[in-house]
C-alpha cells in the first residue's frame, strides 16, 4: 500500500495559518498596529479603503528595519520577541510568535517600506501572495510603512464570507479603538476612503476616551484605582445612571493587551448590583490590570484576546471590590439630599406650649364590606331588561355577521366580538360565537407590530412617523455609528427620520408613532446590541426579521396597559387580520380558545 501522508507546501501552510490569524481585514489591522507599537512608534497612521478589502496601510515613525530584517520578517515564525520556550511565559510585547506578517503576505499583495533612523536609504520589498517579487533600496522617512492590497484575492472562498463594508469597517474601528485606548501616550490617526475618522493626540487615558467616544464622556466616568500583591488596577468606570443597552464600551486590558473575559465582566456587573437594571443594561468601563507576566498565559489563542490567569478567583474578588470602592468613593451611589429635606418650613414649638393629643374619630356603623356586597349583588342579579337586551344583541349579531375566513395555514376565523373585558394589563377575555378567547395582550401587540414592520421594510414603504418639536442629537460610538448607518434605510421604513450630522452623530427629526422621544437612544442601542454581540440565534436569520422583532417587542411593551372597550376591539380586529394571529413573532401562543365542549370537559374533570 502506497504512503498517503505528505508534507504540505509552504504556501499552503501559510494559508492555513492565515485562516487562524487573519480572519478578516480587522485582523490584519490589529497585527500591523501592534507591530508599530512594538517598534517604539510615537505616531501611527491607519489608512483603509473599501473597509480594508482593497487597501490597508499602516505608517509609523518607529525604529524601522534593516534590509535583512525586512526580508526575514515575512518568514514563518521569524521574530525578534522571543529566543527560548521560557520567553513565552514572560511576554511584554504585543506580537511574539512571528505568524502575522507571514499570514498576511500569504493572502494579499504587500509592499513594505522601511528605514532605520541611522540609515541613509531604506528598503522596499514587494510580495504577491507569499512570493517576493521585488527587493530594492528606496527613499523613506525613518520608520515603516506596510501597504496591504487585495486581501483574500487568491482565496475567493474566504473573501465570499466577508460581510458588507459597513460591518467590516465596524470591526476595524473596534480594533483601532482597543489599540488606541491601550496606548494613550501614542498619537493615532485613521482615514477611511480618504476621509479622516479619528485624530487622537498623545495624552492621558481620560482624554483618549473623550476623543474616541465623544466629549460628553468626561462627566459619565469616574476613576478606579487599587493595588495589591496580586495585581494593580487603574482606569475608569461608568456612572450607573449612564448604563446603556449595549456592551460596546466595556474594555479590559491586561498588561496593556486587550482581552475578553466573561468571568471578569461578571465581577464588574456584580459590583453594580442594585444600582442599574438587572437585565439588558450594562455599565461602561475601561479597566487596566497589571499582573506579573509569569502569572498569566497569553499563548492560548491565535488572536491573543484570551488569556489564562493563575489566580482567577482572587482577581475576581479584588476587581469586584475595587469597582464597589470606586462607586462609593466618588459618591456615585446617590446620597440623601439633606439640604432639600431641610428646605421644608417647620414652625418651631416654644417651650411651655400646650400640645393637644390627636383625636381619632371612628364611625361605629361603618361596614367596609357594604360596597363590595352591593357590587356583587348588582353583578350576580342583573335586571330582566338587561338580560333580554343582551340576548337580543346576541341574536342580531348571529343573524347578520358572517365571520370571514382568512387564508393561511391555521385558517383562523375573524371573530365577531360580542363582549370583552380586561384582566389586569396582561390578558383580555373576549366572547365570540359561543367561544371564549383568552388573549395575551403583549404577545398580540408583538404579532401586530412585527407584521407591520416586516411588511414596511420588505416593501420599502415607510411607516408614518411623528415629527419631533425639537429635533434631538444622538452621539454614538464609532462602531455603533457605522452599524446604524448601514441600517439607516430599514430604520427609516420603521418611522425613524434620521440624518447624519458630522462624525458619529445623527439628528432625529421624527420617531415612530408610539415611541417616546426619551426612549429613542435606548431603542437604537438595543437594536445595535442584538446585531453587535450576537446575544441570540437571531443573528443567523435575515436582518429584516431580527430588526422587526426587536422593534415589535419594544412597542408591545409600551402598549401593554389597561384598554378601553374600543381599544380592545381594535386590538382584536388587528390581531385577527394577521396571517398567523395565534403565534407571536417568537413562536409563542398568543391566545387560547375555549369552546362550550372544552368548558364542559373542564368541569367534568374537576368534579370527578
Please give a structural write-up:
Helix content is 36%, strand content 22%. The protein is of the alpha+beta class. Strands 5-4-3-6-2-1-7-8 form an eight-stranded mixed β-sheet. α13 runs antiparallel to α17.
Low-confidence stretches: 334-347, 375-383, 393-411, 535-540
Outline: elongated
Query: Based on the structure, what is the oligomeric state of the protein chains?
Result: single chain
Q: Biggest sheet: strands side by side, in what order?
A: 5-4-3-6-2-1-7-8
**Main sheet properties:** 8 strands, mixed
Mean pLDDT: 79
Task: Please indicate the count of domains.
Answer: 3
Structural class: alpha+beta
What is the CA–CA distance across the termini? 77 Å
For the structure shown, list the relevant keywords:
single chain; 608 residues; Heat Shock Protein 90; Ribosomal Protein S5, domain 2; Ribosomal Protein S8, Chain: A, domain 1; 3 domains; 5-stranded mixed β-sheet; 19 helices
Task: Kindly summarize this structure in a few lines.
This protein has 608 residues and is of the alpha+beta class. It is built from 19 helices and 22 strands.
